[in-house]
Amino acid sequence: MSGANELDPEIAAADTLDLERFGPAPVHLPGNPAAARAEQERRRAPWNVGGPVMAQTRDMTLDFVGRSVAARLYVPEGAGDGLVLYLHGGGWVIGSLATHDRLTRMLAHMSGLRFLGLGYRKAPEHPYPAAIEDALDAWDWMHAHAAELGARRFAVAGDSAGANIAAAMTMTLCGGSGRPIPDAFASLYGVFDSNLDSVSYLMRGDGRYGLSRASMATFWELYCPDAAQRRGFSLSPARAPEGYLAALKHPLLIAAGLDPLRDDSRRMRDVLIAAGVETAYVEYPRANHGFCHLSSVSASARAALAQTADHLKRSLAGN
Hints:
alpha/beta, Rossmann fold, 8-stranded mixed sheet, 38% helix
């Protein structure tokens, strides 16, 4: 690889270290979701060591009708009154509060905002729309407990499939329920369309850079088996009507140039701008999917997280 097709040296070194520690990563998602979850937990653990210390980190159980969902509250030193609901990635199937702990702590520390990470229900045990329902209930819970959480302004953010859930949740809120809409939205390499035939999928989806097109096809099948249903905007937010796109206030889209999902963020940027939504877009051309987990070794990861944190802080300060 060379030029635009070459991974950032720090990210490449991290991938080499990961290979030395654990052996080759699976190019395709294992057929057993439980095994896939355990594998990701194992591989992500070293990258969650260290990082900023919070004034308070509190594991919680949110009780909703008929179910309970795990959550983790992050309160940095000198936290203001902004609270961000954070939805982790993992193709709606894998990922957890633990796999995204350092990433969320970094965002909380850099922004000075409180973060609530949500351990939403996963597919295939809980397919679409379970994750969105959990996000909506957590959003309502945050507002109902705003005083005790020290929160007055609210935003939503997520990475990969978590950004998909965050967008779908926000668009659902604007559908006439009368519930408050997030004051800001931030995405790290989000999933915004079920189309697997974009240029970036076809050029970057063979697994050389981590995430593969085959894995995304499996994630989609487990999350929503009905291919026709996936074209709806609660699954493919980039296909939403203008009125729903306008619900995404102060959106920031971070993309990775070597990510099969790169064109999802580009398309989302384009449809938001066409709908009259002022949109911040930043692309890291030599980064791959998931690079923001490497903040302990990657300047690009730290820069992307700092941009996200600053955007959320500034956006909430204006509300």
